[in-house]
Amino acid sequence: MMKRDRYKRMNPGRRRFLTVLMGMLTFLPGLGVAARPHEPRRLSLHEADFYHPHDLKG
Amino acid sequence: MAVVCELCPRECVIPEGEAGDCRVRVNIGGRLRASTYGRPSAMHIDPMEKKPLYHFHPGSSVFSIATAGCNLHCLNCQNWQLSQRGGEEMEQIYRADPPQLIELARENGCESIAYTYSDPIVFYEYVQDSSELARQAGLHNVFITAGYINKKPLRQLCQVLDASNTDLKAFDDRFYREVNGGTLKPVLDALVTFREQGVWLEVTNLVIPTLNDDLSMIRRMAKWIRDELGEDTPLHFSRFHPQYRMRNLPPTPGETLDRARKEAMDAGLRFVYVGNVLGHEGNSTYCPQDGTLLIGRVGFRITENNLTPDGRCPSCDRPIPGVWQ
Ligand SMILES: [Zn+2]
Fold first, then answer.
1. Per-residue confidence at A33, pLDDT binned at 50, 70, 90?
2. CA distance A42 to chain B (A)
């Protein structure tokens, strides 16, 4: 008997349960990624030589 | 907090979040960042003759790099896609911190690294750190620049440089203001600094019809080079090609370059070359004493090298200034 036939012949309650379970298994890991804090990627920039602070006034 | 960049004579006052006139030195949170450090946008292997350096390790290969940005804005820039843009506008940005750069140069069989194409002044810290490592690794450092830099940073950098070809764009402050967006005096100072600090120096002058081809100016320039840098300083006259924002002028006629070369030699310079003209006799090096052909060149290729191993004329034994090996 083919797998597909077995699935078709299951009672509707069990079929529904399996569908929801598969759905959750594929959806939940995605939630984890989305839940990660959304920080911008930082590029380290080399500090320059030969400069000094300057107070912009007036 | 704003900062003042003291690297070049512009001394830009840079408010937070903005860049200097060069587009690549950026104030982030009151600290000036060299945004193209370790991020070249051009990497090529060139012959030394292309820099052009004719009296420095002739025929050797140079690993040549540049990042985005420049502190001049020449209307006739050859590399404007690189120089007149900030890093964020480049299609191509490689990652090569100094150790990787040295590794790349060695892997590709290069004896030297050239900081070139745009103006390496704007990626000063990257040049400094790479040059220190390169020197430890036995490589030479070559700085191809327009020399628009302050004395203090240049003196420091000279400690790790071996050679420079510096552009002297005209012997005229007005030309610098109108065509390059700079001034003449700092460039003359930079030339003198290279000489004083013992960096092998050659000078390039791009001759642009009607703008800087006046023979009396060329004579004054040649005399200044003779008196301040020495009669042995190689001078390269280079041919202009219309491009970027200067398409209204024709390429420099060959006779103009011939006349410029003669004028500079009459003023007492011993090694005057003509570049960008294939097969011109001014591509080759001759003995100033007896006219013997010392190094023959066609384009960037060396056709013959008759110098003795210790850099002398084979006929009269005159020492020829340069770094030959
Ligand atoms: Zn000779």
1. low
2. 13
- Give SS3 for B292: coil
B32 interface with A at CB cutoff 8 Å: yes
Q: Minimal Cα distance from A43: which residue of B?
A: B35
Contact in structure between B240 and B206 (CB atoms under 8 Å): yes
Interface contact A54, partner B, CB < 8 A: yes
Contact flag B125-A48 (C-beta cutoff 8 Å): yes
The encoded tokens of residue B149 equal: 């830099």
B7 and chain A in contact, CB less than 8 A: yes
C-alpha dist (Å) from residue B320 to B197, B231, B307: 20, 12, 8
Identity of the amino acid at A12: P
On whether the CB atoms of residues B117 and B146 are closer than 8 A, the answer is no
d(CA B64, CA B44): 5
pLDDT at position A31 is 66
What are the start-end ranges of the E strands in B184-308?
A: 200-207, 235-239, 272-275, 285-286, 293-298, 301-305
Residues of chain B contacting A52 with CB distance shorter than 8 Å: 3-4, 6
The pTM for the full model equals: 0.88
- Separation in Å, CA of B97 to nearest CA in chain A: 11
Distance CA B33, CA B19 (A): 9
- pLDDT of B21: 97
Report the residue from B1, B15, B35 with minimal CB separation from A45. B35
> B42, B43, B56: which is closest to B236 by C-alpha?
B56
Instruction: List all residues 6 or more positions away from B134 whose beta carbon is below 8 Å from its beta carbon.
Output: B101, B102, B105, B113, B140, B141, B160
Q: Which residues of chain B have pLDDT under 70?
A: none
Please give the Cα distance from B276 to B280 (Å, whole number).
Answer: 9
Q: Do A50 and B33 touch (CB under 8 A)?
A: no
Q: Can you read off the two tokens belonging to residue B308?
A: 């003795």
Identity of the residue in B6, B13, B37 whose CB atom sits nearest the CB atom of A50: B6
Identify the CATH homologous superfamily for domain B36-283: Aldolase class I (3.20.20.70)
Structure tokens at B186: 């700092």
User: What distance in Å separates the CA atoms of residue B231 and residue B250, rounded to the nearest whole number?
Assistant: 31
pLDDT at A36 over 80: no
